[in-house]
Amino acid sequence: MTQVFISYSRKDSSFINQLVADLQKAGLDVWYDVSHIAGGARWRSEIENALRSSQYVIVVLSPDSIVSEWVEREFLFSSNLRRKIIPVMYRACEIPLNYVDLNYIDLQGENYGRNFRQLLKALQVDSTPSALPASAARPPSFKWKPQYLALMGGGAVLAAVLLGSFLMRGLFAPETAPTAPVISPTPSAEETQVSIALTEPPAGASEIPDPSDIPMVFIPAGEFTMGSDNIDEPLAECQSYYTGCDESWFIEEQPAHTVYLDDYYIDVYEVTNTLYADCVNAGVCEPPTDAGSATRDDYYGNAEFEHYPVIFVDWNMAKTYCEWREARLPTEAEWEKAARGADERIYPWGDELDPAALNYNQEFGDTVEAGNYDDGTSPYGLYDMAGNVWEWVADYYSSTYYQDSPSSNPLGPESGQGHVLRGGSWYDPAFLIRASSRLKEPDPVGNNIGFRCARDPDR
Question: Which domains occur in the chain, in start order?
Fold first, then answer.
């Protein structure tokens, strides 16, 4: 099967979405990163495998992609594999040195409808009018911003090439030289598959793998609103579930206050069974205290559930795992900013409850695969920040901590009877899965408790 790999910057996602849709309409079988790379899967390995099985590589050129370290690495790796590379210009930019000998296809603005045929021809797909999608006649919409017009200087390009060449021998270099693929002279549309490389997350963030090859998202420094003073609706729901629920149940979230955080990275997905097992197999982590789940006797260690969140791990077990990965547990403030962004939203996806965006309220009665809800991602592209499993954070718990916590990089109380859990779980009602909701536990284990990791930028 012929496969096409698309390398791009996530800041160009609106264009990529249209390009993929039009390629599908032209009869191509499209493999899309955010829909097909499972939560907990090894990101770098997925990219390597896609490149190895691809015969064509489309590189979408823009001011953002030409400075993307991952686009650079994908180009170098595909060049080493002797793949046919097809550059397409989406937004005007200086052509990097790697591409000066390659003829690019101009898909900017009104050129899109006219030159889309050239792309199909380069992919050896029938480019007659009947094969063209209707949307190819319409240029993709894009709002130009001043910063997008800045071009990368030649010296910076050369430095990126040299750095990429060095990194090529490390990050993506195979143990043995790959065998050049046997390319069919004229592959049919049914045989052609398009693969989108996971290079960067939505605009405003940058996605990288950590040293253990696990996707993390960069959260930029800045302020956000932590906590909540709006308790009327969650209080009413709480009272419908629990006898004796009153305003004191929500004092721990008050007052809403502004917090500044430095840059940090945090996992895109909850830590899964297979990822945690790596630490166990390395002799560092203890196995979960129970190999089952709420409804399954055989959960941890079962290949069917390898991409499901690990459970039955206490705070110390979670901390040990993150440190083994050269990472750490996120602080409570870091977790909340990653979950709700800077616009005080109630849930990761917005202010209205969307039952289709998460696993909660015993709908399934157990965990589901990590990264299962595309509609429930946070402003930074994180999955399952509401529901599925509660997540350990680094902080000790105090119900009054928000009343006098530091306004910059708070770390929580110096001591306490237990640590904080955030995010709610598959078991909990809506008022407990809000981004500001906090739960104190004396470091137990449970079938609805898991975690994710964070790390500082200098690691």
Answer: 2-200 (3.40.50.10140), 215-455 (3.90.1580.10)
